[in-house]
Amino acid sequence: MKSRSRIVFGAALALTLALPVLGRADGKDGKDNDRPAKEWTVNFGQPQPQTPDAAPVGAAVTHFLDPNDLTIVKGDSVNFIVNGGGHGIAIHPVSKKTTRADIAEDLCDGNNNEANDATNPAANRRARAAVCNGTVVTAVVINGTPTLVTGTQNLDYMITDGKDNLIIHPGFNVPAAGANNPRLDDTEHTHRLLGTSGRSTAGDTTGLAAIRDNPAGAFLTGSAAPATVGNRINVQFLKTGRYLVICMNRGHSLNDHMFGFVNVVNDDDD
After folding, report:
1. Considering only Cβ atoms within 10 Å of each terminal Cβ, which end of the chain, N or C, has fewer?
2. pTM here?
């Protein structure tokens, strides 16, 4: 496990299958093609009806994945059901032994309030929201200039996996200081499997420039009530490995620790 946080200050419905937080796809012995591919469900955000707190914590307590660690077989697909608003989904490969603590320690508040997530997750999220939010002002240096950054989600973080590989480097988000990074949008450090928000590709010359060149992109439409249907993103996993699934909303991920994992195994793996 990594030893310390790397915050850089100087430079729709419940799960449709009865699964615990750690899910496992049941397969037959033999090769991958001996078993028909399955579809699995992950709620991206608390399933409806959501139960946000009153201000100032608000929706921070709803920002989690259910289940937050799912094991499937290569060739299976996952339906990410978007609940609530303001979400974007990014999927990055990480080392196979990467733990939740490996990712959490690189976010705001580090590993604090993570250890008891299985027993009292709402209390942990409230505790994080008290120190990681949009009102905290931090003095930093950006491009050689002393700058006050409002909101812990706008600071610069370096998210690494269990092998200390850099997975996501979001940069500062202070447009006035020349740092315009409104999303958790990094395609440089891994072969990102999915990114639903953020910048268009560098080679894209089509479409309206105002849309193409907007670094924010659009967030997904989530369900606003039990009777409404939000976006559902289906992703098929064709390679074994461990994948980080994280919200591209900086406040949700960097402040609220809205992330989880999909573990992809061969059909004949133990």
Report:
1. C
2. 0.86
Q: Is pLDDT of 7 > 60? A: no
How does DSSP assign the chain, residue by residue? Answer: --SS--EE-----S-SS---SEEE----SS-GGGS---EEEEEESSPSSP-PPSTTTGGGGG--EESSEEEEETT-EEEEEEBSSSB-EEEEEE-TT--HHHHHTTSTTTTTTTTTTTT-HHHHHHHHHHHSSTT-EEEEEETTEEEEEESGGGSEE-EE-TT--EEE-----BGGGTB---B----SSS--SEE-SSPPPTT---S-HHHHT-SS---B--BSSTTS---EEEEE--S-EEEEEEESBHIIIIIT--EEEEEEE-TT--
The least confident of 35-39, 89-93, 203-207 is 203-207
Token match 């020349």: residue?
A: 178
Q: Are strands 259-265 and 69-73 parallel, antiparallel or unpaired?
A: parallel
